Each structure stands twice: as structure tokens, then as C-alpha cells.
Amino acid sequence: AEGIFGTGAFDLEGSATGIGYSSHTEGNAVDLSFPLDASEISADQTIQAPFAVRLSEATTENANVTMAAEFVGSINGLSYEVYKTESFGCVGLTTPFASGAFDGIPTSEVQAFTLDQGTTSAGPEQNLCFVVKADASLQQGANSTVIWQFEARQQ
To answer: Tell me, what's the pLDDT at 88?
Structure first.
């Protein structure tokens, strides 16, 4: 008797422009493009940045995608929400699938969405919008970095 085994390929790609996609490994995250300088956010201000993810052409399985947030530093009065959108950009926001505060505590993984593999090319993208809000109690002179991590698992 003989058994021959093989495994499929799996690759999650991201884009901050909605045009060029690439794989981003841990420690090599893509910078989001907020229209205002995120390092100078002020009280009662909201900023937004689009992002998109998809499965690469080499992927052979559909995926369940989860997201978690990891923080370096904390800022009181600063929070985020992540939305799915129909097209690339931050238009038509309804209900966020993830949210949290910049409190320095990593968020639990949340089931974000599913992605389909492509048949002859990369799979269809899931467009997202990251919204960062500062409330009136925004802590002055503080710095924080957040890394939103996406992980794809075979369905």
C-alpha cells in the first residue's frame, strides 16, 4: 500500500492603496495612510485610513480571517473601529466588526470575515476602513503604536 500526500498553498496579501498587494510578515507591517498626521491627533478629532486584504494567486483554499490589535504604549481618550466596505476607501460605514481603546492591552482575536481563493488569479479583496477617534479626554504628550494583525486560516 502506498499513500501520497500533499498540502495546499496559502498566502494573505494586503494593500494600503487598493492597487498593489504584497505579503506582510510579522514585524514588516504596511503603514496605513491617514489623511491627517496621526502623530498630531487632537481632542474630538476622527481620522480614517483604508486597507484591503485578499488571498494571493498561489492560494488553493478559502480562508477564515481573524484580526487582533497589539499596542506599544497607550493613550487615554483614543479608540479605534474597523469596518468592512464595499469598495476601497472609507465610504458607507455601518457597523464595525472590531473596536478597542489605545490602552496598551492587546485585543482578543475577533472573527473578521472570510476570503475566497481565486480560480485563475488572486481572490477577491475585502476592503476595510480603520477609524481612529480622539475624545475630549485625550491624553496630551503621549505616543502609541498599534499593529492590527490579520491571520488567515483554511476553512
So the answer is: 96
